[in-house]
Amino acid sequence: MPIATKSQILEADDRPVEKVNTPEWGGEDSFVLVRSISASERDRFEQSMIEERGKNTRANLSNIRARFAAMCVVDEGGARIFTDAEAVDLGKKSAAVLDRIFGTAQRLNGMSGDDVDELAGN
């Protein structure tokens, strides 16, 4: 088995995209594209979940589904369609739809429920 070269690693298309049906948002055939995020994006997301208050830290799980969905929902060219700031508005949408998107995003990004619990300090 050959060792991957630096150029193979850097040129690899290793961030899958998957369709998630969203009939609630546009009809029976409506969907969004959900992609995996980069390692640096995941670090940024995980850092956003940690809230420091003086000497104490705690998990910031508020609007977690919408915040993660905003990072992962993309257009056909792979560009995000929501900014971090728009996650607040996205969080006002159907929990059932966001759960589907969040679940797909978790799976594509190798983020388990245990990972979320670990960040939450549980």
Supply database-style keywords.
42% helix; single chain; alpha+beta; 122 residues; 3-stranded antiparallel sheet
Task: Describe the overall structure.
The chain is of the alpha+beta class. It is built from 6 helices and 5 strands; from the N terminus they run αββαββαβααα. The strands form 2 sheets. Strands 1-2-5 form a 3-stranded antiparallel beta sheet. Strands 3-4 form a two-stranded antiparallel sheet. The longest helix is centred in the last third of the chain and has 14 residues, at 95-108. The radius of gyration is 16 Å and the shape is flat.
Could you give a quick summary of the protein structure above?
The chain has 122 residues and is an alpha+beta fold. It is built from six helices and five strands; from the N terminus they run αββαββαβααα.
Q: Tell me the major beta sheet.
A: 3 strands, antiparallel
From the helix content, strand content and strand pairing, which structural class follows? alpha+beta
Distance between the termini: 40 Å
Gyration radius from CA atoms, angstroms? 16 Å
Using the alpha-carbon principal axes, give the shape.
flat
Strand sequence of the main sheet, in spatial order? Answer: 1-2-5
Average predicted confidence as pLDDT: 90
The total strand number stands at 5
